[in-house]
Inverse folding.
């Protein structure tokens, strides 16, 4: 028993071990590298890797990799692993013994009292405390892993929005140029009397609307790019990174996920965290029951000496008498927290099943819409444009009729860009739904950890 306590008390700091599961998740689930920049050398290596990724147009996967390496908020979350490892080691340390000294004088008699005492209750509960802190560290790892997944999902969505905004801006600029040319032609034809005032005003109105749409597209492009820049953790010259000119093409076939719910239950971080939380709460409940009657138990060695009598040697034991507080309230609180953890775990699983079904439904719907837009709407608009061009070449319609038809294609092209953007966003949401709901998991897990910890600490 004593040897086991000594071995427990010899635990050493090993923050890299606490980081290893999170790093493995990044590699296995996201296929991305994670690095904890704890030294200047680590930071320099990250800077070099980020610079390499920014040398060419930044793709979606490269953007996620930059964010996971360079986002300072994520690095701050990694430091929580170091804090948790330190608390684990602190809980494993043997309690320091206490020493007391007293000098009493009665006339010529001088009595010296010396005592050495140790907290036996702390010694007996040391294995349980160590295990509780290990489970708390595991919960911290789950929280940090959820933040990793959240950052990856947010970055991918921000990249999709930024590239779509760039693509929409370029198209809007082309529309603006066409509208300006149409308005200028209408002005000149009106001057020579070949165009009435109403027709000229219509062309000018279209040009004014195009200018307004261009300003909005520029604002949307700036906002989307800055959101991506913040997630990437870039500043200065690094913020001048380039993006692809357009979104990737729509895949020929959608994903087929027959075991959707089973896959989610086996790998969703919030479900796994809820299960660990219930296990940790059960462990804390055992600790509360063990210490319900004895909160203070100390063993001390005593040696008293006097200049007029032989030295006194012996020991003393002090403990708290459970005359008023029998610990029933602490146990009842711990049991209530445990039941609460079970209910929350079940609620998390139910919500997870619904969320993945909803995400997959949105993904399939977005694919169907984008495919219809690509294969039906745009080709139809293109054929209409070709027919009108033939009519224009045959002098059956004029230039403004041709321009009016071109304007009707603007809505179709914009809808196509939005449909493709919505599909890639839906796919990003599906990927995140299969791994968890990271935006909510850390907060809920932290709250449950605090409640369970409070039940064990009292």
């Amino acid at each position: 028993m004593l040897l086991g306590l000594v071995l427990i008390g010899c635990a050493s700091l090993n923050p890299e071990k606490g980081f290893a599961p999170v790093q493995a998740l990044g590699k296995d689930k996201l296929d991305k590298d994670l690095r904890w920049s704890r030294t200047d050398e680590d930071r320099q290596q990250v800077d070099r890797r980020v610079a390499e990724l920014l040398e060419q147009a930044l793709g979606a996967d490269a953007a996620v990799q930059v964010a996971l390496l360079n986002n300072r908020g994520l690095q701050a979350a990694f430091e929580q692993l170091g804090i948790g490892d330190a608390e684990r080691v602190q809980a494993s340390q043997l309690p320091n013994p206490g020493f007391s000294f007293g000098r009493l004088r009665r006339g010529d008699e001088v009595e010296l009292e010396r005592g050495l005492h140790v907290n036996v209750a702390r010694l007996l509960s040391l294995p349980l405390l160590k295990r509780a802190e290990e489970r708390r560290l595991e919960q911290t790892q789950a929280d940090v892993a959820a933040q990793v997944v959240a950052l990856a999902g947010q970055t991918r969505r921000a990249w999709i929005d930024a590239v779509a905004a760039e693509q929409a801006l370029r198209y809007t600029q082309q529309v603006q140029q066409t509208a300006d040319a149409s308005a200028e032609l209408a002005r000149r034809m009106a001057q020579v009397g070949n165009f009435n005032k109403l027709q000229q005003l219509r062309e000018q109105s279209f040009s004014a609307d195009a200018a307004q749409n261009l300003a909005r597209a520029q604002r949307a492009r700036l906002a989307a790019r800055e959101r991506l820049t913040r997630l990437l953790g870039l500043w200065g010259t690094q913020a001048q990174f380039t993006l692809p000119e357009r979104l990737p093409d729509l895949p020929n076939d959608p994903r087929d996920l027959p075991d959707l719910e089973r896959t989610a239950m086996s790998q969703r971080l919030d479900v796994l965290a809820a299960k660990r939380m219930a296990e940790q709460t059960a462990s804390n409940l055992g600790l509360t029951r063990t210490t319900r009657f004895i909160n203070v138990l100390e063993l001390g060695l005593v040696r008293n000496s006097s200049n007029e009598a032989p030295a006194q040697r012996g020991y003393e034991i002090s403990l708290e008498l459970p005359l008023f507080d029998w610990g029933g309230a602490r146990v009842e609180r711990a049991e209530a927290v445990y039941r609460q953890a079970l209910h929350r775990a079940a609620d998390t699983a139910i919500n997870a099943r619904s969320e993945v079904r909803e995400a997959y439904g949105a993904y399939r719907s977005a694919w169907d819409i984008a495919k219809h837009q690509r294969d039906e709407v745009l080709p139809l608009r293109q054929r209409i444009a070709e027919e009108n061009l033939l009519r224009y070449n045959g002098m059956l319609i004029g230039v403004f009729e041709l321009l009016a038809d071109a304007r009707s294609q603007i809505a179709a092209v914009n809808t196509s860009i939005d449909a493709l953007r919505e599909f890639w966003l839906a796919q990003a949401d599906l990927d995140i739904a299969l791994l968890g709901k990271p935006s909510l998991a850390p907060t809920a897990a932290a709250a449950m950890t605090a409640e369970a910890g409070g039940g064990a600490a009292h």
